[in-house]
Amino acid sequence: GQSIAILTSGGDAQGMNATVRACLRMAIFLEYKVFLIKEGFQGLITGGDYIFLADWKSVSGILHLGGTSLGSSRSPEFMERSGRLKAAYNLVMLGISNLIAIGGDGTMTGINTLKQEWHLLISELVETSQIIQQKAINVSLLNVVGLVASIDNDFASTDMTIGTDSALSRIVSALDNIQTTATSHQRCFILEVMGRHCGFLGVAAALASEADWLFIPEYPPEKGWEEKMCERLIKMRDSGQRMNLIIVSEGATDKNGRPITPNQIKDAIENVKLDTRITILGHIQRGGHPSAYDRILASRMGAEAVLCLVDYNKDSLPQVIAVEGNSITRISLIDSIAKLRSLKTMMEERDYDRVAVARGQYFVS
Ligand code: F6P
Q1: How confident is the model at residue 156 (pLDDT cuts 50, 70, 90)?
Q2: CB of 11 sitting under 6 A from ligand 1
Q3: DSSP labels, 45-113
Q4: Taking Cα atoms as reference points, which of 340, 219, 285, 290 lies closest to residue 69?
Q5: Residues linked to residue 212 through DSSP beta bridges, in sequence order
Q6: 85-141: per-residue pLDDT in tens?
């Protein structure tokens, strides 16, 4: 039968293991031969022991584990054509014509490029030996499917990415802990959350914790935000609140694109003499067990990825598995990458009105 290879790449996210498990088991159920790849695209380039034939038991007991037991990497070599040529060689030699990649936007861009270059890479490889020429017949077409696992929820055209819900639970439980000590000491707390260029984790955490103020990359504050924020903090104290909570996304900036840091916020608050502390959650958000939601989302998406491969024909465009309104759907890989690129441009041009529309209206309401 045909072969499928599965890898996890980029920053890890809770639920990656559950995703690998679902892909592998659905693939074996449908009588595919399944290869697992260690250390992401780097393993695909290195080959040898990094690409191994797996069976049903290879993914036993990992559904509930965070991280990725396959290992991951942000591979600079795969960004070079020479790296992708080595990856193509390994796929050809093992007769693998289906690739499932689990990761963030960088990973999706990686498989998109590999897919687009595939014919050129193959023609370059077949010129080098007759053995490759024979093997290449079986893999003249490379089918790719993307599964978005990233705590940032920054991917276009899907409601949720795998790992986001778990990261949010981590943030909310940290916030609950902060609230008790902050209340005892009548303090103001600034919590920095992850999300790279996306404010989703910040918005969701603020909604779940009654935060007093929020900074996100997509909605930079007007000039004079320091005074407005302090007024609000004092108003909340006057209304009986014993503490204040401010959430700041790691990528937050002002209207001129200058970063807004927790220290800068703290300095502003000290003008109104509120005792202030900073907590930077960091990688705690990405570690630990996946939530029930992420385990189930990962399992549903993983199974769908394999079904998507089954449905491909020679004219199919590559797909990414998404969730829209609680239904698992397939979206075009090329389109979603184009959307991500245009969002990036809007952010670079600081065209925040268009960013708000692209990201969802809740950022401005
Ligand atoms: O993309 C996930 C993420 O955790 C971002 O939120 C963060 O900006 C980045 O990865 C951190 O990267 P690294 O783990 O390489 O420090």
Answers
A1: confident
A2: yes
A3: HH-GGGEEEE-GGGGTT-TT--S-TT-----TGGGSHHHHHHHHHHHHHHT--EEEEEESHHHHHHHHH
A4: 290
A5: none
A6: 999 999 999 999 999 999 999 999 999 999 999 999 999 999 999 999 999 998 999
Q: For residue 33, what is the DSSP state?
A: E
Which pLDDT does position 21 carry in this prediction?
98
Q: Whose CA is nearest to atom 10 of ligand 1?
A: 11
The two three-digit tokens of residue 97, written as one number: 């014509």
Spatial neighbors of 312 by CB under 8 A, at least 6 apart, are: 143
Which structure tokens are listed for 355? 């960013």
Q: How far is the CA of 243 from the centre of ligand 1 (A)?
A: 30
Write down the number of H helices and E strands in the chain: 12, 11
Whether 323 shows a pLDDT value over 80: the answer reads yes
Q: Is the dihedral of CA 309, 315, 321, 326 positive or negative?
A: negative
pLDDT band at 1 (very low <50, low <70, confident <90, very high): confident
Ligand 1, atom 9, lies closest to the CA of: 196
- 268 — pLDDT class (breaks 50, 70, 90): very high
Asked if residue 47 lies in contact with residue 92, where contact means CB atoms within 8 angstroms, the answer is no
For ligand 1, the distance from its centroid to the CA atom of residue 80, given in whole angstroms, is 22
Question: Which residue's alpha carbon is at the smallest distance from atom 13 of ligand 1?
Answer: 11
Ligand 1: which of 196, 280, 283 to mutate, judged by most atoms within 8 Å of the beta carbon?
196
104 lines ligand 1 (CB under 6 A): yes
Q: Which of 49, 55, 105, 152 is catalytic?
A: 152
What does each C-alpha distance from 216 to 53, 194, 349 come to in angstroms?
44, 10, 16
Strands annotated E in 194-353: 213-215, 244-249, 276-280, 319-324, 327-332
- The residue with tokens 């239904």 is 327
Cβ–ligand 1 distance for 67 under 6 Å, the answer no
Complex confidence, ipTM: 0.98
- The verdict on whether 311 is a catalytic residue reads no
pTM for the whole thing? 0.96
